Structures are given as C-alpha cells and as structure tokens.
C-alpha cells in the first residue's frame, strides 16, 4: 500500500492544509508520496522533500499547470496513481474541485471530507451538516479520499530528505481557461488555521460596522469569519464564510457576534474549543453551543469588550 | 441552447435531523423534504437564461425513489419544460448519479448541465465534477456568476482564497453556489400548468448503469454533544472567564 498525496500550493509555497492532509495520509499508510503539479514550483518541491512523513516527491511542471485547472490536473494524477492504493487531498475548494474528477476517471466512489481514519478502507465522515457521523468502508481497489483539514494536525515540516522525481507533463487540455483570481491579501492569520476567530452575522447591520470586529481581531490576533447572511448582504467577502457551504474552523476560541446559530453555520464552527456568543436574543440557538453566552446588544458589548481587552494589556500572538 | 438541470430531493434544510437508534441512518419518515437548495439556484439560472432568449429548452432530471418526482414537478412549476425521473430506491452514490446523468446527456444532448455544488444530505460535493470527467467536458464548479459569451461561458467561482474567473467551452457542466441568484417561487397558475408537463420515467437498468453502492455505510451515529455552557452577565465577566477559566486570551 502506498499513498499518493496531492499537494496544494501556489507555485511558491505549500498551502498550509497540505500539512494536515499529509498527517491524514500517513495514518492510512506510512508510505506517503507527494505529487506536486505546478509551474516553476521547485521551491515547493524542496519544502515537500523536507517533510519527514513524505517518502518521495513527484514533480510535474508545465505552463498549463500554473492555475490548477482540474481538466489538466486530473489526467496526470490518474497516470501518476497507477501504483498507489489511495489518492488523498484536503477537502478545501482545491481538493473538492479536483478529486471527484480523478475518482470518476478511475471509476472509484470517492469518500469526501473524512474526519477520522479507522483503517485503510474505513473512515468517519460528517453528513447532514455535521449532525450525524457516518462510518463508511470503501470497497474500491483504488480509493480517492479528501480529508477535513481541521480534523488532523499539521505535520512536521523539517528534518526529512525525500528524493524529488520528475514526471512528464500530460498534454494540455484547452476546453477551459483561467482568467483571474481575486485574492484578498491580509496580514491576519488564515481563517482555517487561526487560534482565535471572531465572526459577525446579519446582526452587524452593515459592512462598516465590521470595524467593531476588526478592532477586536487586531487585539486578539484573530481571523475574521462571517455567517452566510453577512456575506449575502455584502458586509464582507465570501472567503470569510464559516459553515456547511463555507469553511470549517476549529480554533481555541470562536466568538460569534450577531449570529443566530443556524445548523448550517454551526456545521462550520461547533468543534471549536471554546465558543462565545454575543446576541441580543436570549433564545438564539447559538447559545445552545456556547460555553459563554452574553445576551447583549453587540453595539454596546463590542466596544466594551475592546476596552476590557485593552485593560488586560496583553497582545496575543 | 438546451440545458439539463439535475435536482435532488433531500430533507428540508430547516429540519433538525435525527439519527436512527439502530445506527442505519437518519429518520426520514414524516420529515419535510424539499429540493436540495443549490439545485433551486441551478433551475433558476436556467430559467433566466431561457427568458433572456439564450436557451430553448430546459429538462429537469432527478434520480431517486417514487416521491422524488415532486422535485421534478417543482422544477417544472418554476419554468423547466420537461422532466425525467430515474427511479431507484435506497442510497445512490455520486458516481452512480454521474453515470446515469452521463447516459441521459448522451440521449438528450444538452449544451449545458447545471447542478448544485453540494447535496446537503450527503455533503459529498462530487457529482458535477464526476459527470464532467465522464463526459470529458470542462467543469465550472461553485459558480456565483455565469455569463454566456458566444460558445463559451465566463464563470466567477467561489474559492477559499476569494473569487476566481474562468472561461469554459460549451458543452460544460456547471455547479451552482447559493449566491448565484435568488430562486423564484412557483405561482399557483404555473403549478397547475406544471401538472400537464411531461415526465419520462426510467430505471437505472433501462440506462444500463450499475448503481450499486461501492462505499458501505457501516453505521450512522450522533456526533458528540457539547456540554452546556453558561450565560455571563457582563462583558467584564466574559473577559475574566476567558482569561482565568478557559485561558484562551
Ligand atoms: C444549503 C444552505 C447552506 C447554508 N450554508 C451556510 C453556511 O455555510 N454558513 C452560514 O453561516 N449560513 C449558511 N446558511 C444560511 C443559514 O441557514 C442562516 O440563514 C444564516 O447562517 C443566518 O445568518 P445570521 O445568523 O447572521 O443571520 P440571522 O439568522 O438573521 O441572525 C442574526 C442574529 O443577530 C442577532 N442580532 C441582531 N441585532 C443584534 C444586535 N444589535 N446585537 C446583538 N445581536 C443582534 C439576532 O438576535 C439574530 O440572532 C445556509 C443555508 C442553506 C439553505
Ligand atoms: N439523486 C440525484 N438526482 C439528481 N441530481 C443529483 C442527485 N444526487 C446529486 N445530484 C446533483 O449533484 C449535486 C451535487 O451532489 P453531491 O455530489 O451529492 O454533493 C446536487 O446538487 C444535484 O444537482
């Protein structure tokens, strides 16, 4: 048994969840090989080769791999997967977009978004927005698995010395074309890996009011999240959405402000270690998952919260 | 242009699901069922394209038990022209759905297939990508904007980093995000009219597809419950608890 792990990166560096995916892969079998597909991505190959859990790096480069188009990636992964029992990647938008295309070409029924490895063919995955956990056994000879990154720790990144093997690129497929990516650059920690997350919902009433949240995020070195309602209303951009159809976060501290706590939102945050809810409606369902609930008007509570944090005079790192 | 839209019948998103005591699944008896939410966006988008004069026919297809037909009927009531119901009982996996849809595409020859990005019951997020692989078509997943340009689509997709714009050739498979549009409600006259629209009934065997599950569901259980928390009476108390009790700030 050997595992082919598809690395997610931006041609310059690894995306952080690749490290969590490597941990998950290594729990299936210790023979983990990382497949790196990109363009001018030697730095990434080097980073992968230094990961102790990675036994070999396979690198394929071509200009048509620059933007991760699944139509170009999938045939190459299928070719590379010949001698592997499992193909693994993380279940973020990169893996969600790519893996099913590979699975269909391999005639494999994919297992999505696993949170636990029971054995090389048996896994636990959440269904119904995390309101049930299913234990499933894959009967396909070659298995395609995506992992929920927040359910696995990131692996060590130094001390390894795997060989880097080059693989020929597959022919370019031209049915789809990348045009542009609008990435919102920020100095804040990434939502998926932040130790503290503070999220705003429809109760924030406007994008400008998110300033109340940003100030606290600065103080706590927190990432900023949002409910779908806040994104739909245009208060904040889509990459901040937490939930069933957004991102899953498992920080040490999650602060939900003006969020009612719909099951689709809870799906993305209820595994957080400590949950705080600030809501003026004492009956809001968010209180049922909150370790500390504060029934208050957020426009009064948030400035006070900042003031109290300032009093503590500790900047969190 | 002809558009095929795949719609799935699922437990309504407002229902708090219950896990069966015997661990075989979740309770579905006497539970409200609806169209999978992003599939409503898929239908809506197809109807808007037709209203703009850029599509000639919309075919709604569902795969599932007898009652799944309601889902097709609802699609017809908001503007689909005809329906297809592939009857199957029990669990059906995305790969099997994709294979069935592939056969239907071979027969119907649509220019576009619209689907939801994710079914809210199995949360798989696979079927559209699988179908486009089987058809060897381009895929545009998690679409929050679709522009038709000659024989291409320009799509804005929601990704973890923000937004991405891609262009795909037609024919293509598009999976829709909830932010793509605002699905309309069916009017009473349209619901009446939909009753007269035709729905073809087929079986997986008719299409020559083996739909048997490859992934065995061993058990379904409730996730661990969080222990009940407390209400604090002031911001000062909250901060004190976070610092001294939870030790997270
Ligand atoms: C298929 C599907 C997928 C979905 N996916 C997601 C998802 O991924 N993530 C997600 O978040 N949602 C998702 N949703 C939407 C979800 O069902 C809810 O509609 C949404 O989470 C509600 O957002 P909200 O809590 O901000 O808004 P609301 O439910 O409107 O709640 C606003 C809250 O703010 C409080 N409030 C208002 N003013 C104040 C004030 N001044 N001070 C204090 N409190 C105040 C109110 O008491 C209320 O509780 C999905 C829905 C569907 C159908
Ligand atoms: N049984 C089904 N019948 C019709 N469409 C389906 C079915 N299952 C999945 N789909 C389509 O595939 C999308 C993604 O589903 P999934 O891959 O299961 O998350 C759904 O939003 C539907 O558009």
Class from helix and strand fractions of chain A: alpha/beta
Mean pLDDT of chain A: 97
Largest interface: A-B, 90 and 80 residues
The beta-strand count of chain B equals 13
What this model shows, in words?
- The complex is a heterodimer of chains A (317) and B (249).
- By secondary structure, chain A is α/β, with parallel strands linked by helices.
- Chain A has 8 helices and 16 strands.
- Chain A has a 7-stranded parallel beta sheet, sandwiched between helices. In chain A, strands 13-12-14-15-16 form a 5-stranded parallel beta sheet.
- In chain A, helix 3 (70-80) packs across helix 4 and helix 5 (211-220) packs parallel to helix 8 (298-312).
- The longest helix of chain A is centred in the last third of the chain and has 15 residues, at 298-312.
- The two termini of chain A are 41 Å apart.
- The mean pLDDT of chain A is 97.
- In chain B, helix 3 packs across helix 4 (127-135).
- Chain B has helices spanning 37-51, 69-77, 94-108, 127-135, 188-194, 235-244; strands spanning 2-6, 9-11, 33-35, 57-64, 82-87, 112-116, 139-149, 152-159, 162-169, 172-176, 199-203, 215-221, 230-232.
- Chain B has a 9-stranded mixed beta sheet with strand order 9-8-7-10-6-1-4-5-11, sandwiched between helices. In chain B, strands 2-3 form a two-stranded antiparallel ribbon.
- Chain B contains 6 helices and 13 strands.
- Chain B is globular.
- In chain B, a hairpin with a 2-residue loop joins strand 8 and strand 9 (162-169).
- Chain B has one domain (2-244): Rossmann fold.
- With 249 residues, chain B is an alpha/beta fold.
- Chains A and B meet through helix 3, helix 4, strand 5, strand 7 and strand 8 of A and helix 3, helix 4, strand 7, strand 8 and strand 9 of B.
- Strand 16 (292-295) of chain A pairs parallel with strand 13 (230-232) of chain B.
- Adenosine monophosphate is lined by residues 6-8, 36, 38-39, 62-64, 92, 94, 97, 115-116, 118-119, 122, 124-128 of chain B.
């Amino acid at each position: 048994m050997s595992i082919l792990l598809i690395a997610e990166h931006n041609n310059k560096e690894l995306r952080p969840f690749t490290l969590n995916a490597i941990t998950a892969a290594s729990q299936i079998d210790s023979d983990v090989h990382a497949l790196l597909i990109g363009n001018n991505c030697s730095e990434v190959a080097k980073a992968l080769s230094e990961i102790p859990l990675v036994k070999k790096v396979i690198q394929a480069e071509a200009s048509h791999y620059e933007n991760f188009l699944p139509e170009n990636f999938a045939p190459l992964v299928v070719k590379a997967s010949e001698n592997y029992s499992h193909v693994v990647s993380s279940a973020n938008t990169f893996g969600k977009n790519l893996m099913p295309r590979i699975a269909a070409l391999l005639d494999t029924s994919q297992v999505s978004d696993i949170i636990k490895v029971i054995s090389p063919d048996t896994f636990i995955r959440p269904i119904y927005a995390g309101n049930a956990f299913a234990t499933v056994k894959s009967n396909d000879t070659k298995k395609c698995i995506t992992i929920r990154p927040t359910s696995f720790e990131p692996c060590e990144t130094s001390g390894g010395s795997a060989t880097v093997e080059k693989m020929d690129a597959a022919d370019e497929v031209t049915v789809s074309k990348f045009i542009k990516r609008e990435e919102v650059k920020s100095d804040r920690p990434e939502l998926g890996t932040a130790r503290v997350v503070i999220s705003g919902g429809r109760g924030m009433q406007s994008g400008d009011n998110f300033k109340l949240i940003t100030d606290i995020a600065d103080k706590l070195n927190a990432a900023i999240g949002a409910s779908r309602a806040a994104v739909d209303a245009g208060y904040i951009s889509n990459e901040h959405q937490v939930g069933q159809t957004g991102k899953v976060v498992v920080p040490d501290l999650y602060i939900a402000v003006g969020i009612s706590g719909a099951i689709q939102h809870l799906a993305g945050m209820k595994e957080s270690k400590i949950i705080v809810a600030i809501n003026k409606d004492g009956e809001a369902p968010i209180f049922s998952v909150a370790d500390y609930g504060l029934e208050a008007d957020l426009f009064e509570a948030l400035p006070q919260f900042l003031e109290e944090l300032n009093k503590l005079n500790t900047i969190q790192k | 242009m002809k558009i095929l839209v795949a719609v799935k019948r699922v437990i309504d998103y407002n229902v708090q699901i219950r896990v069966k005591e015997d661990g075989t699944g979740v309770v579905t008896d006497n539970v409200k069922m609806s169209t999978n939410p992003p599939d409503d966006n898929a239908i809506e988008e197809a109807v808007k394209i037709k209203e703009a004069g850029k599509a000639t026919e919309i075919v709604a297809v569902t795969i599932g038990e007898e009652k799944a037909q309601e889902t097709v009927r609802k699609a017809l009531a908001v503007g689909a022209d005809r329906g297809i119901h592939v009857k199957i009982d029990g669990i059906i996996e995305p790969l099997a759905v994709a294979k069935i849809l592939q056969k239907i595409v071979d027969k119907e020859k649509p220019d576009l297939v619209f689907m939801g990005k994710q079914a809210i019951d199995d949360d798989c997020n696979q079927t559209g990508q699988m179908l486009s692989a089987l058809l060897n078509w381009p895929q545009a997943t998690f679409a929050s904007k679709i522009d038709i340009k000659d024989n291409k689509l320009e799509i804005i997709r929601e990704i973890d980093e923000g937004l991405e714009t891609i262009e795909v050739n037609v024919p293509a498979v598009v999976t829709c995000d909830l932010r793509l549009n605002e699905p309309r409600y069916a009017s009473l006259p349209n619901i009446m009219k939909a009753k007269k629209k035709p729905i073809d009934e087929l079986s997986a065997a008719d299409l020559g597809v083996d739909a048997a599950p490859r992934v065995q569901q061993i058990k379904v259980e409730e996730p661990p419950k969080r222990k009940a928390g407390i209400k604090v009476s002031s911001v000062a108390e909250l901060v004190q608890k976070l610092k001294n009790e939870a030790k997270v700030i």
